[in-house]
Amino acid sequence: MNKKNNLRMILTRGTPLHNKIFARRLNRREFVSSALALSGGAVAASLLGNSNVWAAAPKSLDPIDPYIRFGITGSLWGDWPNGNLRMSTDMQQIISDTARFGLQGLEPYSGQVVQFLDNPHALKRMCEAAGIKLIDVGDLPRARPAALGGAPKPGSNPLSNPLSNPWITKDGNAELIAGMVNFAHDFLAPCGCDHWKTNMGSRPEGGPRDDQLKTLANTLNEIGRQTIAFGVRLAPHPHIWGPMERDHEVRTVMALTDPDYVWLTADTAHLTLGGGDALQIISDYFPRVAEVHMKDTYPKYRGNTSTPTPAEHHTASLYHNLGAGGVDFPAIFKVLRGRKFKGWVVYDLDAPRPSDGTGSIQDNLAVNINYLRNVLHVKLPAPPQPA
Hints:
Elements: H1 3-11, H2 16-24, H3 28-39, H4 41-48, E1 68-73, E2 78-79, E3 86-87, H5 91-100, E4 105-107, H6 110-113, H7 120-129, E5 133-134, H8 173-188, E6 195-198, H9 210-227, E7 233-236, H10 247-256, E8 264-267, H11 268-273, H12 278-284, E9 289-294, H13 310-315, H14 329-338, E10 343-347, H15 361-374
Parallel strand pairs: 1-4, 1-10, 4-5, 6-7, 8-9, 9-10
Antiparallel strand pairs: 2-3
């Protein structure tokens, strides 16, 4: 039976799924889940425009929820010339380390994938050869116009201009939307990425006005409306020093965006540093959480009324290895496991600074792998011994 006939059978009046849909007035995501359960993955995948159907991992690492997958971002690999993080672009090394430590996927940052813009399948093949998944790409790469579908040239990309944030203003907004949609279509979808973590530019002085939050929501809705057509769920990442920083800003944008078009990347440290309760936010927006970014911070920042400044972060990192005490990870995992989270939990921390006392990249990997193993009981292998 082909997909069209299969779908027609599902929607026939009087069938179990038809009755379920119209009795409960299921939204689009619920319909896809029902279609998957009752008619097989092909129909649900075709509706999402992506051949990837979320299922239990072939080798589950979580002791309770087989649908949770564990990965890492590319920011851990890098150095700090002149006190500024410079991420490595040695993707072979990053992919090799990710696989060697037993993690299931990698989320490189935008600057790390510019080298693959002409050939996204090459990056996908590198990951597959190592036995890991390319999760998505963190943010929109700054690149030549062809790669962004006519976006501004390098140096004039609106995302790089702190005086004009196209996420919250009309200036450059149409170009931003076009660039985001084109990258999702040309890079993420062909690589099988089913969601996209993205930051939203710089924070206006004094914080965003109500009209700027409305513009941000409209921008997210429009990008998400287009990217979901080919199976990529837009998942904005609230970030300190961005327009979606404080708890009320997160909740306002979530209320103004369409849950069929806009999901959420919940970063445990950023939500805490922005004065929010990461556990509560994840609980409240659980059906819309596409990805969780795991990093810790310090207990003193819990419930703050003023976000720590970039100057403070420059002096000493606000982010910390898992177990620092700012985030209640056991409680968060109780929610994720209890509600059967289907998505990626991704360890995300900057490269170690020369004087921070945390050791090498490999040392930091080992500390956090051991926290996942010993505290959260994730079935990762013991970290490999240094060569």
